[in-house]
Specification:
By secondary structure, this protein is mainly α. It has helices at 8-30, 70-89, 115-125, 136-149. It is 40% helix and 0% strand.
Length: 171
């Protein structure tokens, strides 16, 4: 009696196709990098009150903000945001595949109480597709732009280590 269903050839083709698809998926996974963060000696892993591996003794980041004026820093941040952040956070920061960083739905305080703590998060974990690659001045500029868009900081001094701890990110 002949078994009903697919023949031996069809089974072999289906197995071969499944094997090829599996190999393609495996090779795609091997090309992805998993973000890792190595704290500086003596520093702890960032947590809810996120602190940068470059944080100074007071817990504020040791990097300086870029730009001769807040206006320059904000403009620079807008350009960097458009290039490096907008694909996930949206052109206006409204959120696409990542949370909103501007407007009423922006939950900036989730990442810390002040601009220094938010800087540490950005510097360490952003952009999500290539974490930790923003230069300090670029991270300060992006943060200045985000805070300005939310009415949380508008200068006149550029955002940096000397004033970040005093800039609240809570509404």
């Amino acid at each position: 009696m002949k078994a009903q269903g697919y023949g031996k050839g069809t089974f072999l083709w289906a197995t071969l196709v499944a094997l090829v698809i599996g190999l393609i998926m495996l090779s795609a996974c091997q090309n992805q990098t998993t973000p890792t963060t190595t704290p500086a000696p003596g520093a702890s892993q960032p947590t809810a009150g996120i602190q940068s591996p470059t944080a100074g003794p007071s817990g504020t980041p040791s990097a300086q903000g870029g730009g001769a004026s807040f206006s320059d820093q904000n403009s620079k941040g807008q350009g960097i945001f458009a290039q490096r952040c907008a694909k996930c956070h949206g052109q206006k920061g409204e959120g696409v595949t990542a949370p909103a960083v501007t407007g009423p739905n922006a939950g900036l305080a989730v990442y810390g109480d002040n601009a220094g703590q938010l800087f540490s998060f950005i510097k360490t974990y952003m952009p999500q597709d290539n974490p930790g690659t923003l230069a300090d001045d670029d991270a300060w500029a992006v943060l200045a732009y985000i805070l300005n868009q939310n009415g949380l900081y508008q200068g006149p001094k550029p955002l940096g280590t000397d004033n970040a701890a005093s800039v609240s990110v809570k509404r």
